[in-house]
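Let's practice the habit of predicting before peeking. Look at the sequence and jot down your guess about where helices and strands might fall. Then scroll down.
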Amino acid sequence: MLPVFLLATAPILGRRRNVLAVVGASVAAMAVHLVAFGWVTRCGVGLPLAFALSYAVARFAGNRRNQAIGSAGVAALILLVLAQDTSIGGLPGGLEIALPGAALFYGIGFYVQKRADRRVANAPVPAVA
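Done guessing? Here is the structure:
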């Protein structure tokens, strides 16, 4: 089970380069984990991963289309995590925590990105000698 969890979580290390590929790889690995292992506890790893990916989508996805695709991928990851989770009891248990949590982390990432954009826009232009 551990190697598949590593396949689901390790892609987040590349979030700055291509966050949509990271979300896709994590969703695919979690789907493999769900099919291979069935009813196990995966919310302890999967939900924090979904929250981190939600933040990363807000920060690094760029335009609205990419934001929507990334957010849909995070929602799919949450559904896969909770589908056959023994600690929560499967769907819909846990959605009342997972979806607002993902929205909260998305909002924090969005706020941080707007602050970073504002800082870049207000930065002084260096003089050319």
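How did you do? Residues 2-116 form one domain.
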